From TrEMBL, chain A:
Keywords: Cell membrane, Membrane, Transmembrane, Transmembrane helix, Transport. GO terms for biological process: transmembrane transport. Belongs to the binding-protein-dependent transport system permease family. SUPFAM superfamilies: MetI-like (SSF161098). The keyword Transferase does not apply. One of its GO terms (cellular component) is plasma membrane. The keyword Cell membrane applies. Residues 94-311 form the ABC transmembrane type-1 domain. Gene3D superfamilies: MetI-like. Its main location: membrane. The gene is gsiC_4. This is Glutathione transport system permease protein GsiC.
UniProtKB/TrEMBL annotation, chain B:
It is an enzyme of class 3 (hydrolase). This is Glutathione import ATP-binding protein GsiA. Keywords: ATP-binding, Hydrolase, Nucleotide-binding, Transport. Its EC number is 3.6.3.-. It is found in: Cell inner membrane.
UniProtKB/TrEMBL annotation, chain D:
The keyword Membrane applies. Its main location: membrane. The gene is oppC_2. This is Oligopeptide transport system permease protein OppC. Gene3D superfamilies: MetI-like.
Length: 323, 564, 501, 301
């Protein structure tokens, strides 16, 4: 187990380095940070001096080396745009994105799993067909359109929920959370739903497919043959067995959720990392973009690791006796 | 007690209803073990499933009666039927590997079953479960009950399955091939358990199997099915010993005996005889023409194969798993060497080492006096890749289902550079099909359009088209019915003698090996227990293990066999 | 009363000298003050200086400072603070230092008098420093913020201490910034705001939704096409005005060949004024106004809109929409079948910039000028322009000093890196007479003489079609009905003019 | 009759699945319209001189103030909506299909090889896949876009936008194919026909592509349809974030992005008609994908 985790961690470092490298090589093409940092009247000479100061004239390898070594020493640099430490800026935004992502995920699970089970058990029902078609339409509308529609329906027309931002946050330790106030939840719900729609459909379809597969398996038939109550068979036996593939895909998708939160955050002005990242692209704020990507890669790697550990928790066959 | 009358089951399909069984009559009395035999697809499982009400979708009972005691099983509502299941009827499936929920402990599964049918409290249920496990022969049941299925061996798992079936004291248990996945030792224990339960608890068993030996050994009465209909039913002794129905007679003839060697298997129906057709001769001639080289023997010397066990610790390299341990074996040129042993003993590993699919850790292999390099170092163009061919166990997966028979058969011809003309290749492939007893027109079809036996013929044809000198058959008939098995074995025998092939014949079925092999080796946990001429080995086994195997193999009483 | 308002961009820093960008200067004008300030009509009025007059005997200005002004932390405002702020703002680390390019010396005369000495007569100097904000010397030095932050943040990035009407009560960059009134402000408060909460909302539709749902009271700007929607709703109103930004097309005067043409590759037809004029005649500003801008733009004849000082009344005609004349001019210039060329545009910089360019390309095409349109975000637009990578390009210009001299200096004078002139004249339009007139305009004190010179420049550039000025960009704000506010032409939002009813 | 049906089982299934028929009709109609756009559409939205701002913002015919010449109205540039949509669908499909092809070739190739060789090669491929997954599609798009800008001469940059976008989408989709192909290959590797081929000494490339590939096509085909839908949507999203196609050569995604500006302004058709079109296309492709999944599911045969 320890060996396994260590092995994964070592691999993770490589994944992150590779992401950093790729990220870094792309920044040079995003645009020119200097022209974004300076005003109309700044002279060319001043711009050149700034460029030199920031080390932007150094060869790419040197810049990358500096970026990685600094980062390994815990120095994440300063934003070109706000001059604040990048580490602080990102750290400030992590709770917002994570809470959004996790709540979206949870919504997608608590709706998607029962819907998947239902549609699997009644494959020909009218409701099943309805659910399948609705979700299909749901994922066929681009996220940004869905987001804006939700804002106008629930925020403007009905006036039930806030249209933007993240309100009602509470500081808990170093973590700014919106999960502890009604206000916070009201702000969270629309973006989380928007972000969760795709995930929900995916979860539902996956659970449905796996469930239909598992329901045909011998142990379910044997369970029926010995008269185990149906409810127990469906939820205790069948559902648990669908979880391994479902967790894999959901784990993989969580990375996608975090990445796609860029769109959702921008639509809802949700102050998370994605929004910060978009702003950073606009201002060619290279240090922020770099750290953002590495953080994303880190989350991705972390989620993968958690998924692997969850397998072990779910499936006793994977538990290795000797550590 | 269980009475089935005129039962018919249909499966609606995309192309209309298919009648799986019809006019099935059967009666099972309390405490009786009722055998249900027949070839694959005969409808045996369908009868069982219809009785317990678990026909696989979208099958339905089209007519007939099923009554259990006073209850008309067909008249029950789904809820009532579900209540009856477990309570009065239970079922055991073939594969103990897949019959248990891998994510729940044995205890959970037993307790939930007991509680589903009684008011027992949790602790009462646990007590009962433990008692039950003890009763069916699981030692230390109190502690082992906390285990997950994967922590049990196959035999123990099948016992647990039986425990689950009997824990609610049903009147009838339907056992669908309950021992097919087990090796003989475990099989005999499970069969003994079933017999004991029938005697002591008066549980009736419907024992579904295609193994006539098993039926002969344990069944009180037997029903023979074919193509969805009952051919014959009655006392076991009468049906098997003096069959009325010609089909039953033919079936009995195809069962290979363990105790004597017969020349050829009797085939139930007139199967086409190999090599009869005019084009078949072409193929035969072509093969004989390739016989320039003499017969090749194979010598294995101190062969050891180890597999790395998965690494789980940072500091310890785990001890490798020894699949073959110091195996020395000689296949004489032009003879058949039989290799028997229970599942997991390393038989297939041996075949793979010879064919180069796995690399031995040490030892040498020689084919006709030439060293055979280890798998990793054997070049793609090494002559042995042509000289050694293999017929696999599973005809379903050994043929690429996306290639036509022509593609499959022509591949060795061009690959080994025998025939460069495409038309000639096709002609030869068709001829070879005929040689193995199939219509040459079959060449444009796909494998899934054939039955298992036909596919296995194609597999044999493919092996022959490589002009092999050494043929490995890895359980070539274990996926087939007895009757088809007989055909294939006859075919293999004929071909072997015609073309002077040396053969390594792998099987876990001792009866089959006795009929096929000149010499036999017994493998156990990667070690050779005994090797010698087949007749000697079967008549006077030296090793205890061999004796045990022979004793436990279910056989028909000699008297029931018609004179060969 | 609490006022919540939103705009597209967050001020990236609270340091008034670090960045010369509109969002920052606009926001900080609520907190800091300069020696002079602009009134509701953009006119210059006293602020921290009560009066100013030209120096005697040398070039420059003397400012008399207001007495009794205190910073938000309570310390007093004196000439030392002005000197300190000048030094800070003209440091290399400051992005606003170009304002002080003409300044050669600053002298504290006494506690409330300070002299700015310039290298030449500079009548516009007071106008040009309206956004030069004064920091407290002791506060800045005491908090290690004596210079604007360069690559790392410093105290002034996140904290303020100005003399202005409001002070910072909370800041969460990119999320919300809260202002509260500065109790000790020297001027009389016109507003009744007790708390101002600013939120950046990048997405226009979201911002509008926030306004309509009542979560914010005011937003700048809203998309043109939504004006009718907002006006149609009970309880909301739209403020429309003209911004000072003129949108124009520029040419690659300097290139000898077209870069993006598929047919004319040996010459640059845009070097011929007739071709440039043809392009100007091809554009139907009225249709653009009606369809794309819903009647909210004002056609422009020159690089500043009417009303800006120096605007040339004498040259207020722009080339009319006349495709036939355009075709004739092209034929005359030797391109009867037209030619193709590359047109570069931004797509996130000006209002409807992309749609404008598409419409323009379509209009050009109608007379045979086949534009290969390429649009992109502004983040890599300026570098492309600086590298001369265009045949024709879109540019919007807002005169920072609200005087015609500004665009002449940046856009019409030939490129001259030494003298820092023509630095945004990407196509390097060059005319000796214009170059000659610029320093004279800069130094001329007499308004009439100065205007005559400006008129001459405008006439020349119109004659030569140096640029095609298109229109003045509209300024569209939306607010709840109960909010009274003043829309200033520089798009600055001043909290001190807001009353919430 | 029966034999015929059995042989053409998918056809039979298809004929008996109303959803699949409707989906196919919609998809084919859209594809037909897209392919023949130059002949069907009354204006060429790429030809700037073929439309005029003068006709801008006209509503569909059933609304007041419409011009019957423009059935579904015009956009803010005066472009006929139908024509733009047909051309847009054409571009979206071109991008989607080419991205998918690239992704499939790359992903299936790598996945097959990873499954076939296993061990270290497999580990490397899967780590590369991880890196790819950790890079959001928008970043991949920026990267490719940036490199193209850096490498290609300015004059062709606008022309390669489509290629750039295609490549970016392809890169963010290949992992799906690689993972599926790899997993299916692992299963096939256990099959005896593969063992037989290896034993014969056939070349690995032949084993992978001639023997294994046809057997894993089923699941791959399903991914194809699902990913075609996501490719089209991804293109729309990238457009929204400003890294998509220029507005004068619009894809469906770009049309929606432009239409977003008119969400509230009353000119609903500029947004909703292309959106409806996109949804119809994506939903019908997905339904066809589900249908294929059923056809290929051996359990249902
Ligand atoms: N789910 C199903 N759908 C369609 N037909 C079926 C289904 N299950 C069984 N059948 C048909 O019923 C017939 C009997 O099948 P059944 O499984 O009962 O045979 P069996 O005797 O148990 O064979 P085996 O020894 O292979 O288990 C087969 O020919 C098959 O075609
Ligand atoms: N690639 C491998 N890696 C690790 N262990 C293996 C591998 N292949 C086989 N083994 C192990 O080697 C042992 C022998 O396997 P083998 O397949 O040779 O048995 P067998 O006698 O053919 O059994 P069966 O009758 O079930 O086919 C088994 O315990 C198996 O788990
Ligand atoms: Mg069966
Ligand atoms: Mg084996």
């Amino acid at each position: 187990m320890v060996y396994f985790i260590l092995k994964r961690l070592v691999q993770s470092v490589f994944v992150m380095l590779a992401v950093a490298f790729l990220a870094f090589s792309l920044f040079r093409f995003v645009g020119d940070p200097i022209s974004q940092m300076t005003g109309v009247e700044t002279t060319v000479a001043d711009q050149e001096r700034l460029r030199e100061d920031l080390g932007l004239n150094d060869p790419f390898v040197v810049q990358f080396y500096r970026f990685t070594t600094d980062m390994l020493q815990g120095d994440f640099g300063f934003s070109y745009r706000t001059r604040q430490p990048v580490a602080d800026m990102i750290a400030d935004r992590i709770p917002a994105t994570l809470e959004l992502g996790v709540v979206a995920l949870i919504i997608s699970l608590i709706v998607g799993i029962p819907a998947g089970v239902y549609t699997a058990l009644r494959p020909r029902g009218v409701l099943t067909q309805g659910i399948l078609l609705t979700t299909l339409v749901g994922v066929s509308i681009p996220t940004f359109v869905i987001g804006i529609m939700l804002i106008f329906i629930f925020g403007v027309q009905l006036g039930w929920l806030p249209t933007f931002g993240r309100n009602g946050t509470v500081q808990i330790g170093g973590w700014e959370s919106s999960l502890f106030t009604v206000q916070g939840w009201r702000s969270l719900i629309l973006p989380a739903v928007t972000l969760g729609v795709y995930q929900l459909t995916l979860t539902m379809r996956l659970v449905r497919a796996e469930m239909m597969e598992v329901m045909r398996s011998d142990y379910i038939r044997f369970g029926m043959a010995r008269g185990v109550p149906m409810g127990r068979l469906h939820y205790r036996h069948a559902l648990a067995n669908t979880m391994v593939p479902v967790i894999t895909i959901i784990g993989l998708q969580f990375g996608g959720v975090i990445a796609f939160s860029i769109v959702t955050e921008s639509v809802f002005q949700w102050p998370g990392m994605g929004l910060l990242f978009l702003e950073s692209i606009r201002f060619v704020d290279i240090p922020v973009m770099g750290v953002y990507l590495v953080v994303i890669a880190f989350f991705f790697v972390l989620v993968n690791l958690i998924v692997d550990l969850l397998y072990v928790a779910i499936d006793p066959r994977l538990r290795v006796k000797d550590l | 007690m269980l009475v089935i009358k005129d039962l018919a089951v249909k499966f609606p399909s995309r192309f209309g209803d298919v009648t799986a069984i019809a006019d099935v009559d059967m009666e099972i009395r309390p405490g009786e073990i009722h055998g249900l035999v027949g070839e694959s697809g005969a409808g045996k499982s369908t009868v069982g499933a219809a009785v317990i009400g678990l026909l696989s979708q979208p099958g339905y009972i089209a007519g007939g009666e099923i009554t259990l005691g006073e209850t008309d099983l067909r008249a029950l509502s789904p809820e009532a039927a579900h209540r009856i299941r477990g309570d009065r009827i239970s079922m055991i499936f073939q594969d103990p590997q897949t019959s248990l929920n891998p994510l729940m402990t044995i205890e959970d599964q037993l307790v939930e079953t007991i509680q589903a049918h009684s008011d027992a409290t949790h602790s009462q249920a646990v007590t009962r479960a433990v008692d039950l496990l003890e009763e069916i022969g699981i030692k230390n049941a109190a502690s082992r009950i906390k285990a997950y299925p994967h922590q049990f061996s196959g035999g123990m798992r099948q016992r647990v399955v039986i425990a689950l079936a009997i824990c609610t004291d049903p009147e009838l248990i339907i056992a669908d091939e309950p021992t097919t996945a087990l090796d003989v030792a475990v099989q005999s224990q499970v069969l003994a358990l079933i017999q004991r339960l029938a005697r002591e608890r008066q549980i009736a068993f419907m024992l579904i199997t295609h193994d006539i030996g098993v039926i002969a050994q344990v069944a009180d009465r037997v029903t023979v099915m074919r193509k969805g209909r009952v051919m014959e039913t009655g006392e076991t002794q009468q049906v098997l010993g003096a069959p009325d129905h010609p089909y039953t007679q033919a079936l009995m003839d195809a069962v290979p005996p363990l105790d004597v060697k017969i020349d050829r298997f009797r085939v139930p129906e007139e199967a086409p005889i190999a090599g009869e057709g005019p084009t078949g001769n072409v193929a035969e001639a072509w093969l004989l023409e390739g016989q320039r080289s003499e017969m090749l023997g194979l010598t294995l010397d101190h062969l050891t194969v180890q597999f790395a066990a998965p690494r789980t610790s940072l500091f310890r390299t785990p001890a490798p798993y020894v699949a073959l341990d110091d195996v020395s074996l000689t296949v004489r040129p032009g003879t058949i060497m039989g290799l028997v042993g229970e599942s997991g003993s390393g038989k297939s590993t041996l075949a793979k080492a010879i064919t180069g699919l796995v690399s031995p850790t040490s030892g040498t292999m020689q084919l006709g006096g030439d060293d055979l390099p280890y798998g990793k170092t054997r070049g793609r163009r090494h002559p042995s890749r042509q000289l050694i061919q293999m017929v696999f166990q599973d005809p379903y997966s050994s043929l690429n289902s996306r290639h036509t028979i022509a593609d499959i058969l022509e591949e060795p011809l061009w690959f080994y550079g025998f025939v460069s003309d495409a038309r000639e290749r096709r002609r030869l492939a068709a001829a070879m099909l005929e040689l193995v007893g199939m219509a040459p027109e079959a060449i444009d079809k796909y494998p899934h359009q054939f039955s298992g036996g036909q596919r296995q013929r194609v597999a044999v044809a493919r092996a022959l088209l490589a002009r092999p000198r050494f043929l490995i058959c890895d359980e070539p008939t274990s996926a087939l019915d007895v009757s088809i098995q007989a055909e294939i074995l006859n075919l293999l025998k004929d071909l072997q003698s015609t073309f002077g092939l040396s053969v390594l014949f792998i099987s876990h079925n001792l009866s089959v090996v006795r009929q096929m092999a000149d010499d036999t080796a017994v493998l156990r946990a990667g070690r050779i227990e005994e090797v010698g001429p087949t007749e000697d080995l079967y008549e006077a086994p030296q090793a205890d293990y061999t004796r045990e195997l022979l004793a436990l193999t279910p056989v028909m009483p000699k008297a029931w066999r018609r004179a060969g | 009363e609490t006022l919540r308002w939103a705009s597209t961009t967050d001020p990236q820093t609270m340091d008034p000298h670090a960045v010369n960008s509109a969002p920052v200067l606009s926001f900080l004008n609520n907190i800091y003050e300069g020696l002079v300030r602009r009134g509701k009509d953009m006119s210059i009025e006293p602020s921290l200086a009560t009066s100013w007059e030209p120096l005697e005997g040398e070039n420059g200005w003397r400012f008399t400072l207001r007495e009794g002004v205190t910073f938000q932390d309570g310390s007093a405002f004196t000439a030392e603070d002005v000197l300190f702020s000048y030094q800070r703002a003209s440091d290399e680390a400051a992005d606003v230092r170009s304002w002080f390019a003409p300044v050669t010396d600053v002298r504290v005369v006494d506690e409330f008098t300070i002299d700015f000495v310039t290298n030449a007569p500079n009548p516009l100097f007071p106008d040009s420093i309206a956004n030069f904000m004064i920091l407290d010397k002791d506060w800045a030095e005491g908090n290690d913020a004596a210079l604007p932050a360069r690559d790392a943040e410093n105290f002034a990035t996140m904290n303020v201490n100005g003399t202005g009407p409001f002070t910072l009560a909370g800041r969460d960059p990119g999320v919300r910034t809260v202002l509260v009134p500065h109790e000790g402000w020297w001027d009389e408060a016109e507003h009744n705001v007790t708390e101002g909460v600013f939120t950046p909302i990048g997405n226009a539709a979201t911002g509008l939704a926030a306004l309509l749902s009542g979560e914010i009271d005011f937003i700048q700007p809203i998309p043109l096409q939504d004006v009718a929607q907002v006006e149609g709703r009970e309880g909301f109103r739209v403020l429309e005005g003209e911004e000072t930004r003129v949108i124009m097309f520029g040419f690659g005067h300097e290139h000898d060949t077209l870069l993006y043409s598929t047919d004319v590759t040996d010459v640059n037809p845009f070097q011929d004024p007739r071709v440039r004029l043809a392009a100007a005649h091809a554009l139907d500003i009225d249709s653009i106004d009606r369809v794309l801008f819903r009647g909210k733009i004002e056609a422009a004849s020159q690089l500043v809109p009417a009303g800006i000082s120096g605007y040339s009344e004498a040259n207020s005609d722009r080339p009319a929409y006349d495709p036939d004349r355009a075709r004739a001019l092209l034929a005359e210039a030797g391109y009867p079948d037209g030619f193709s060329f590359g047109l570069k545009c931004t797509n996130d910089r000006y209002i409807n910039d992309e749609a404008l360019c598409r419409a323009a390309a379509s209009m050009f095409a109608a007379v045979g000028l086949n534009a290969e349109l390429s649009t992109g975000p502004v983040r890599d637009y300026w570098p492309q322009l600086r590298e001369d990578d265009f045949d024709m390009y879109l540019l919007g210009w807002s005169p920072g000093t609200f005087d015609m001299e500004h665009p002449i200096r940046f856009l019409m004078h030939s490129q001259d890196d030494e003298a820092r002139l023509g630095s945004w004249n990407f196509g390097n339009y060059s005319n000796a007479r214009v170059d000659e007139l610029l320093p004279m305009i800069q130094q001329e004190i007499d308004p009439a003489a100065r205007q005559a010179m400006i008129d001459e420049v405008v006439a020349i550039t119109q004659e030569e079609v140096a640029y095609i000025p298109l229109y003045t960009q509209p300024l569209i704000w939306a607010a709840k009905d109960n909010v009274d506010l003043t829309q200033r032409a520089d798009n600055f939002f001043m909290l001190r003019w807001v009353t919430v009813n | 009759m029966r034999d015929w049906l059995k042989r053409y089982e998918p056809v039979w299934l298809f004929v008996h699945s109303p959803a699949a028929i409707v989906a196919a009709v919609i998809a084919i109609a859209i594809i037909f319209g897209a392919v023949f756009a130059p002949w069907i559409a009354q204006v060429d939205p790429y030809d700037l001189s073929s439309f005029s701002l003068f006709d801008g913002l006209l509503p569909p015919v059933w609304e007041d103030g419409a011009n019957p010449k423009y059935l579904l109205g015009t956009d803010d540039q005066g472009r006929d909506m139908i024509s733009s949509i047909l051309y847009g669908a054409r571009l979206s499909l071109v991008i989607g299909i080419s991205a998918l092809t690239i992704a499939a070739v790359l992903g299936v190739g790598l996945g097959l090889a990873a499954g076939f060789y296993g061990g270290r090669f497999d580990a490397v491929v899967m780590r590369i896949a991880d890196v790819q997954l950790a890079l959001p599609a928008i970043l991949t798009a920026l990267l490719i876009d940036g490199i193209a800008r850096g490498v290609l001469p300015a004059s062709v940059q606008q022309d390669v936008r489509v290629a750039v976008l295609t490549l970016a989408i392809a890169l963010s989709l290949w992992v799906n194919f690689a993972r599926t192909a790899r997993a299916s290959t692992f299963v096939q590797m256990q099959k005896e026909y593969v063992q037989a081929a290896i034993m014969m000494g056939q070349r690995p490339v032949r084993i992978m592509f001639v023997h294994i590939l046809p057997n894993i096509l089923g699941p791959l085909l399903v991914i194809m349809t699902v990913d075609l839908a996501s490719a089209i949507l991804l293109e729309a999203t990238l457009s929204f974030l400003g890294i998509g196609l220029p507005a004068d050569s619009p894809s469906l995604g770009t049309l929606i992005r432009i239409g977003m500006q008119f969400l509230l302004s009353g000119e609903w058709w500029i947004l909703w008609i292309p959106t409806l079109f996109l949804v119809a296309l994506v939903v019908s492709i997905n339904i066809l994908g589900d249908f294929l999944r059923d056809v290929f599911n051996p359990r249902l045969r």
